[in-house]
Task: structure prediction
Amino acid sequence: MYDLIIIGAGPGGIALAAEACASGINQSQILVLEKGATHNSAIRQLYPDQKLTTANYKGFDARCEGLLCLSDMSKSETIEFFDKVIADHKINIQFDAEVFGMQGLNQEGEARFRVESSNGTYESRVLAVAIGIFGRPNKPKEYRLLPSLKERLLFDMTSHPIQNEDVLVVGGGDTAAEYVQYLQRQLNRVTLSYRQTEFSRLSKQNHDTLFAMEERNEVEILRGSNIKQVEDETGRPRVVFNEPEYPTRTFERVIFALGGTTPTNFLRTLGIAFNDQGPIFDEAGATNVGGLYLIGDLVVGKKGGSIITAFNSAVHAMKRICLRDLPCNSKLMVSI
Result:
């Protein structure tokens, strides 16, 4: 049995493990379960190599409240930062451990939760869920993605090398704009399809950069375009649009940047209460289930947060854990 089990080895999960170690909880009593083969899979999969990890992503205040903090870094520097945190705090992470069952324990004893994973079954006094919303990317609902085009229809930038190809990016947010910039630098011929006629979700930097690229004919933007279907044309995606002004075209790759969804069913199995906005939690990420906390993107909202907001959510959760659930160092016994 563990004092604390954390599901997810992203920024929030790693930060909570580090905060727990610093609070005096023995490292051997902390377990992080990660379904992937390594930590921070979202950063590794979704970020191009040249992308800068910005401290104030999406305008969030880059103010660190706890043990961990970072400045603007490259992708590789960010990964190295987390490698060092894991090593310095001797964080116990079980990789390739996908969680498929969880339940609260009403029996007598200190264990409150039982977690079943592909690596085994564990019990803990406190459970924290730190899975990111982008672990489950949104897929188009209006048309079917053919299995024969699996290698050509992508949801990230790292699974396949893409260079000197005709590429369609689908989406209108910051991720889509950053994909366009990266693909163009890799000598690809890039087209962006966005269903709205005006871009309203872009940061100023991405907005200005994307429009400047359009003026230089480095990207073609199909405003107000909606895909009707994607066909297989001898192994390449043939994209049919609803709008007559956009003729059917064949690309070598289509990359979807449609955001992600909160894994609702996963959270409901824990007995977490929901409202119209999603799971219910307080300012510390505490849910209606005693000893159960949400951290990271799950407590920020649908647009997602920054690495630093994930760090800070771990700080808030740890303070509450020390007050209510586990014996901690007195320095952290401060109410939020």
The longest helix spans residues 307-324.
